[in-house]
Amino acid sequence: MIPFNKPFFTGKETQYIQEAVQSGKISGNGDFTKRCQAWFENHYGFEKTLLTTSCTDALEMAALLIDIKPGDEVILPSYTFVSTANAFVLRGARLVFADSGPRHPNMDVAGLEKLISTRTKAIVPVHYAGMACNMDAIMALATQYNLYVIEDAAQAVDSFFLKKLSSSKEAIQKRVPLGSMGHFAAFSFHETKNIISGEGGMLVINDPEFIKRAEIIWEKGTNRAAFWRGEVDKYGWVDVGSSFLPSEVIAAFLYAQIENLDKIQKQRTAIWKRYANELNMLMDKGFAQLPVIPEYATNNAHMFYLVLDNADTRDRFIKHLKADGILSVFHYLSLHKSPYYADKHYGNELPWADHYSDCLVRLPLFYDLTTELQTKVITSVKSFFGV
């Protein structure tokens, strides 16, 4: 069976874990944690980063940092993973779901402004498949209405927003890293992501105003980080918080992955491009929609998906590939129709979110997917459509 995902190991993970163990410091915020955080700050220009045990934890920290309270409203896409929503529901927020767009599962920015009310506190764009939402438009709305922006960049490591710097015909574009534009961003290093630590995540704090408090929340509500830097003579409980930081074992594993990011990205991109080239005929013949890369986005090759005509076709397609020894999978179910939130949703129709829930299917994409195995996947896909 060709799996949907297979974790890639660089060969240095166990070496670095052993180094962490031998150092005598395997709890959080040790040498490997600092190395990882410094790398992201230096490489992408993030103001401050804090490793977390998951992207979920990073989102929950962001909700604490902006002081979400019962009755506050948070705008987020319906087509996303439940963690995006849970981080704010746990603080008592009311979720206001945005629809996806007709050409891409990302939130439809054109419909955002009408969702803003006097109780709106934050917008949470999710960069689906590692491709940017229209951050210029989102940040403009946030500025206009004095809202926080928390980028859910779980899938978006090493991906960029192409910011237009000129209005001339030969417009100049600046590559702005995803996760660097919102007040906060949350990344995932789950084993399904481009770089991994099994479970793991990272909070990015781009507004310096929140850095000190973020460290306190990260360290269980204590000022221990300041104590270890010699800024205070003792530490104590000074705010709310929880045990958000990962162990050095997780950070050591992640650092081995970070060192190989360029190599990983090159291989994943080659696999993604071959899918696109070989399967483009399906779009030409009207059988399926292939991923569309917005003009303001780059592609980090996190995911390759097809959008089929309906749920029945999608289910038959998955069964067809499985019969050929290939595991393909659908993705999110619309959160506004979920058993937990359906009776709390205020009732607007979100047809594109429902469309992707019913029709999107993801193909195998991982570092060790050989040309031979990918050929088998492509052949099976084409045979389903008779081409």
How would you sum up this structure, described in words?
The protein is of the alpha/beta class and 387 residues long. It folds into 2 domains: 13-258, 3-Layer(aba) Sandwich (Aspartate Aminotransferase, domain 2), CATH 3.40.640; 261-385, Aspartate Aminotransferase, domain 1 (Alpha-Beta Complex). The protein is 36% helix and 13% strand. The protein has 12 helices and 11 strands. The chain has helices at 13-22, 31-44, 55-65, 82-89, 135-145, 211-218, 224-228, 248-258, 261-284, 311-323, 351-359, 371-385; strands at residues 48-52, 73-77, 94-98, 120-123, 148-152, 160-164, 173-177, 184-188, 201-205, 305-307, 360-362. A 7-stranded mixed beta sheet has the order 1-9-8-5-4-2-3, with helices on both faces. Strands 6-7 form a two-stranded antiparallel sheet. Strand 2, helix 4 (82-89) and strand 3 form a beta-alpha-beta unit. Helix 1 runs antiparallel to helix 8 (248-258), helix 3 packs parallel to helix 4 (82-89) and helix 3 crosses helix 6. The longest helix is centred in the C-terminal third of the chain and has 24 residues, at 261-284. It is globular, with a radius of gyration of 21 Å. The two termini are 23 Å apart. 46% of the residues are buried. The mean pLDDT is 95.
